Amino acid sequence: MTESGWGESWPAPAKLNLLLRIVGRREDGYHLLQTVFQFLDFSDRIVFSPRADGQIRLRTLLPGVSETDDLTVRAARLLKQHSGWSGGVDIQVQKVLPMGGGLGGGSSDAATVLAVLNRIWELGYSPDQLMTIGLSLGADVPVFVFGQSAWAEGVGEVLKPISPVEQWYVVLVPDCQVATAEVFRAPSLTRDNPPVTIERFLSGFDVNDCLPVVSEMYPPVKQALEDLSGFGEARLTGTGACVFLAAEDHASALAIADGLKGDYRIFVVRGCNRSPLHARMEEVFGLSS
Question: In whole angstroms, what is the distance from residue 288 CA to residue 91 CA?
Fold first, then answer.
């Protein structure tokens, strides 16, 4: 077993949904989507330490989330179960991404656990195998394993590489957490929107079909959209709660952030089409991930 990777601080990056189309619903209740994922240079950080007793333990509990329910622990235990690996691991998460914000924090944390432990434990799973394992943890986990900005269909797991412009963004975090399941259960959600093409997205079509429902259900999100819309086209990522605005450059993004009023957490971040996790794995392990 290699010692490389232990004690390293691994990124679990945020994502934005640059498009979110609801085009149908499966018999099992899951919604059929079209979406575009782009990563951000803004990440939780995860550190792994070996344990000799075979246990999976989380050293940084999230408020209101038990260790058993935490996605990082679930991901590690699932990988251990699939592989039959006998060793254990301590997981320490430096949480930066907001919970219930639509930035993919929990899913990204889980994907970092799968991808990094696969290498540290020398399990040899392919990205496709890890994506399949990750899908059982959540529909957004596969794209973080995939590691490339992507056009996604199905429930979000059918991925095709895409390279949208790597813009600077201003991201607002309203004072609420959005329950994705509630949004998808809402009677007012339109579930049979006509599909669009990648070409149409690249030509400027960037609608989020969840935005009207989320704005109605969560007044803080509606207010954040209104406040940010004073500077340009404010958009919702996923089902929210975070809203974002593309800026011309870093200086423009900083100026917008300085001009915003209201009690928000504000992030000025850049989009990146290659996951910071994969870039870091290549540096540490010396191979493309």
Answer: 24
What DSSP letter does each residue of 70-131 carry, written as one string?
Answer: -HHHHHHHHHHHHHT---EEEEEEE--SPTTSSS-HHHHHHHHHHHHHHHHTT----HHHHH
13 and 67 inside one domain? yes
Contact 94, 52 (CB under 8 A): no
Choosing from 70, 140, 209, 227, the catalytic residue is 140
Give pTM, 2 decimals: 0.95
Q: What is the pLDDT along the chain (289 residues), one digit of tens a residue?
A: 345 789 999 999 999 999 999 999 998 888 999 999 999 999 999 999 999 999 999 998 888 889 999 999 999 999 999 999 999 999 999 999 999 999 999 999 999 999 999 999 999 999 999 999 999 999 999 999 999 999 999 988 899 999 999 999 999 999 999 999 999 999 999 999 999 999 999 999 999 999 999 999 999 999 999 999 999 999 999 999 999 999 999 999 999 999 998 889 999 999 999 999 999 999 999 865 4
Flag whether 286 is in a domain. no
Tally the domains of the chain: 2
Q: Quick one: 203 and 157 in the same domain? A: no
For this structure, is 140 an active site residue? yes
Q: Which of 15, 44, 80, 109 is catalytic?
A: 15
**Do 128 and 254 share a domain, yes or no?**
no
Distance, CA of 59 to CA of 46 (rounded, Å): 11
Annotated active-site residue 206? The verdict is no
Q: CATH number of the domain that 47 lies in?
A: 3.30.230.10
Helix (H) or strand (E) holding 212: helix 211-217
Closest listed residue to residue 35, CA positions, set 212, 268, 225, 193 = 193
Looking at the structure, tell me whether residues 29 and 155 fall in a common domain. yes
Query: Does residue 3 sit within a domain?
Result: no
